[in-house]
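In this supplementary section we document a worked example of the pipeline. Step one takes a protein sequence of length 484 as its only input; no multiple sequence alignment statistics are reported here. Step two produces a three-dimensional model, which step three serialises into structure tokens for compact storage. The input and output of this example are shown verbatim.
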Amino acid sequence: MSLRSSAISGVRWMGLATGLVTVLNFGQTMVLAHLLAPRDFGLMAMIWVFLGLAQMLADAGVSNAIIQKQEVTRQQLSTLYWLTLAAGAGITVLISLGAPLVADFYKEPALKGILPWVALNFALTALGQQFRMLAQRELRFHVLAVSDVSLAVTAAAVSILLAVWGAGVYSLVFGGLASTAARSAVLLAAGWSRWRPSFHFHLGEIRGFLAFGGFQLGDRIFNYAWSNVDYLLAGRFLGAANLGIYRLAYELVVRPLGTINPIFNAVAYPLFAKKQHDDAALRGGFLELLRLVATLSLPLLAGLAAVAPLAISVLFGPQWQAAVPLVRILAVLGALRSINNPIGAVLLAKGRVGLSCAIQFLTLVVNAIAFWWAAQIGMRALAAAACLSMVVLTALTWKWTYHDVLGLPLRSWLRAMAAPAGLSGFMAVAVYALFLNLAAFTLPSVGLLSILVCAGGLLYAGSLWLSDRAYFRSLWRMVLHGSE
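The serialised model returned by step three reads:
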């Protein structure tokens, strides 16, 4: 297939998988919100910093180099695989030994027993990580789709079953462990017949990978640190219950980002890597990607902000109403993160991991300062600080990324997002007005929410069709037929 056809096929596979995963994750969260206490979610949020690192650090930062470097030998792959396993096992041991320190920091003794179990995710992730990157490099997106769905199905089944049995926070812990094991098993089964590691290990053969991986590892650490420093400080200053509410709001808002962007990044990175020396092609592909991300993510965030009080009450229960103002503030953060995310695929494809690492470190410094001050005031101040920090960082890093690396004019960047942003704002105002008018009637909450969601979706789709029929038709053909 051509690169464009491969991209469309990849988006379809990853889109289908992500849709199923989103439904499963959302259903899991909704059910667990009724079965577990906010404190259980708060405890898990406290250690989420360590759990999330499993996916980022288990490969020692070298996996993405397999995609960026177009020529890789089987011996190099074997060395990289054993290095990944060693890194995963080492981190598992370190996190387990550090459990008492984490518990003392949060002043939560329960974490001493939870963290060693959570640490096993590092070793389990390492087993399948390289097979995942090889499938992505070879544009075998159906393998990635099946592995992601298997993770979500296992997580939902195990977590809900254990919660019903009264396992409390351990339902989240063991649900995560079971799902990580399931995904690695799928990746191993799908990739073992195409390549299997030999008993070969020679660090001298992978010097280039280690240099790339060192910057990539720093990039991931700084990225994960600034993405979770608000959880860390909220848990320290606001307590487990407030952190549980803040995390629910944050996860609800960034769900569109966590749903839509990974689809396109997983497809765009290997395709951009194949065109890494053709700047004109990269600019065109990037602008196409940016417009598509904005078209899909911005209306979801705007609509969520409009119906937040009703949505949270229906989906999670009245005990979570304190999350409503946080959702509305954080919707701005979700929009900013969504439209800034695609540049990361370009930096990786161009091999500019040093620049990406430096930007992530700057982001960590800015966020740590802002969040330290805001967390001592309250949850709303924390949410507002997250939005303001992202605005400042976008302005500070524009020249280094979009201009210097991609040669992209500011007007082109703004033009790609103008229509989706305007239509999303119009839709949100109209849906909120409809919400206020229908609230006077005694409609069931579920029915009212369904009406508002359908009205918002139809209004946005209709507005998009009227404003740019050619683009609307191209999206429609891509979704239904896998063609342009």
